[in-house]
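Summary for the steering committee. The consortium agreed at its last meeting that each partner would contribute one worked example illustrating the joint modelling workflow. Our contribution is presented below. We chose a case with several input lines so that the handling of multiple components could be demonstrated. No manual editing was applied between input and output; the record is shown as generated.
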Amino acid sequence: MLSRTADHLYWMARYLERAETVARALEAEQQLSMLPRPAEAAIRSRRATLVALGAHEDYDERSPDAADDVLEFLAFGREYAGSIVACISQARENARAVRGAVASEAWETINAAWLEMRALERRKGVERARLLFELVRTRAHTIRGVTVVAMLRDEAFHFMRMGTFLERADGTARLLDARSASGAAGEHGSDPHEWTVLLRTLSAFEAYRRLFREAVTPQRVAEMFILRPDVPRSLRRCLIEVRENLRAVSNSASAETERRVGSLQAQLQFGLPAELTAAQLPAYLTDKVEQLARIGAGIARDFLVPADPPPPRPVKPVAEGAQQQ
Amino acid sequence: MTRAYDEMIGTDGRARPHYRAYSDWLLARGVEQLPAKSAEADALFHRFGITFAVYGQAEGTERLIPFDVVPRVLPAAEWSLLAAGLKQRVSALNAFIADVYDGQDILRAGRIPAEQVLGNSQYRPEVAGIAVPGRIYAHIAGIDVIRGDDGRFLVLEDNLRVPSGVSYMLENRRMMMRLFPELFARCQVAPVEHYPEGLLANLTSVAPRGVDHPSVVLLTPGAYNSAYFEHAFLAQQMGIELVEGQDLFVRDEIVYMRTTRGPQRVDVIYRRIDDDFLDPQVFRSDSTLGVPGLMQACRAGTVTIANAVGTGIADDKSIYPYVPEMIRFYLGQEPLIDNVPTRVLRNPDDLAYTLAHLDELVVKEVHGAGGYGMLIGPMATREEIESFRARILANPSGYIAQPTLALSVCPTLVQAGLAPRHIDLRPFVLSGREITIVPGGLTRVALREGSLVVNSSQGGGTKDTWVLEPDGTKPRAPETDDA
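What follows is the complete predicted structure of the assembly.
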């Protein structure tokens, strides 16, 4: 397949997944804002989300008269390339560029999501954020469904899946990081409610109960989303998928990237829950996010268009939250 | 300007025979149902993304080409005559282009003034002597035909470079079948959906000699081109790669595309980029859309470009008046479809006549396109006529003049209900080992009352075009619940 086509498919999938990650992070914030917490806890938690998503620099640099509204910025901020609306638009632009290479129904679904999003952007009122999150979530389900059902298991499919799972691994790591940084910065350590909310926003609360049958603890949640191969959003599960799809498109230039993926997968497969204590977790996650970024760069170099790929989101400085202790 | 021919209603005030099944259905169902269908069509076109971006407007502004839900219907007998005339015309045009670039018999015979061809900006000396497979240059031709007030078809314009619009022919049909399935059960409409298959077969048939399973690609300027939807659509329907210039490169006079598994050879390029932008080493050096070295590969015969470079010499408006002469010269036949009578203003007599009758005539710039650079005398103000007169006098050979034709009208859905609007027809003619035409084409309609300009860039819309099967004039036995 054309390298440029593979590039568009890969980024289309990444941007869709990224939109979903941001939507889930903001849903978590919205639910947390309803808990009876001191104001500084809410500010801290929003800040942690901004930092974990790599959006804090853009947020701080936005025009001085802009509203101090993290949620609005991350959901509807056209000036921020990582906002939900920007990600959906990017996904749609990529899909449009290769609309002939994806199943028609997949293109129509992405286009419909974009049209609905444009309608929401024009709307006013508090409702629209919730509606946007719902839209992203349900449309993401539909797009994945159409893709899996209607597309040939060819290179187009593998590049899309590779993009999806690489981005999802990155997103899971960042969402965990937001909670761990927010907790680490508090006076009384981690707030168990924050972790419960995270489980719910990742559609994993019921799974947690079945796996552990005990109170929600940060370490257990981390174990679940990092080490367990049976949890669909876990780093380990995502890496298994990345590796399979990468193997399916392997070429003469991709040996080093395959080695890096294998190495990260092994770290996750043989990792111990004991490595995931509150003190260790921020550095652990930063390391994983950096490894994922190197894998992404490798895929771009080996298969995709060499000319300026979209810049990766900044990897957060090592445990910014921890330094405030 | 006389009264326009009405496609649906005859001089006796009744629906013409080939429209009877439709008009019975319309009377039974009522015109009131049409606006809702029209709105449904718009919503679906938006959802399918059959749109183009409008520049200089707010981000995310995308436009539809207006679609009219009332079909344009042609009876089988009329179509077969038209199709025969189109085949004749396109085969003469291809013979002409081949002759211009290799032989120039027609110029030596004095049937067309040599300076009209060799001094034309559309003549490409760079391609003279290149051996083109089958001597076919215009593999895909879109011929614009109109119906005059006497009901006869006339050719208004030949489009032999990168004619577009065929995707709308296909999508309009798909939309009509979705909106009005019961109509297709009543009227026997010849299918058009096999066009991409025919196009691929046609492109495959002109591959370089010795290539058994040619790799065919469609070359697009990219996603921001207004016809991008069509490019992506055709590539997908043919199952071929949609490439941009940056995806291709030439090494040792062979064209390759960059794939995830390394370079892969390309044999046939269906290009939707103008000649000027194809190869910066030969044509415009600032083009980033093309492929450096492409013309060298073409000259070496390792790749076929469709349409071939240089076809513009045959669809230039200053050459158009000579097409009937080409048909006589190359085929020894009389044209089955006439040209619109045309005055060439480089001739002093024609110039004098035209200047004296500017308020009656249509005057066109020979290199203009898209309905621009045109004076429609009867519709123009005194000032417009005088300023155009000055332009003509400054460069008479840059213009041709034609009588203002009453293009035929077809009922069209407007705010107030159904009203007659002027239409034309662009059938698509494929030339390869043989010449084929899918029955129908793209009917364009001028949506403004009285307007004769059907171009989509100037407020034109489109209609589905129905060619009825030979026995399709009589309606089938009506379904029991339809009466």
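Chain B has a mean pLDDT of 91. Chain B touches chain A at residues 46-49, 59-60, 222-223, 228, 232-233, 235-236, 241-244, 246-247, 257-262 (CB under 8 Å).
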